[in-house]
Design goal:
With 71 residues, this protein is mostly helical. 69% of the residues lie in helices and 0% in strands.
Amino acid sequence: EYPDERRDEWQTKVLPALKRMPVSELISESGISRSALFEVLAGRSRPHPKNRDVLEAVLAQFTQKGLKVRG
């Protein structure tokens, strides 16, 4: 059985949240090149599992920062 990409957590939750982050912060915090990051954000490529873990960690950190600022 093939996985349904429409129900994939990366496509449905992580990627949309990453798109709401400032690109400059994603680049500086992840260490992923600008061009590779734009390919990922555009949905034209999927990050290597190691880079996916890094992006998810950056997103979690960004989310926590946002929650602390809002109170």
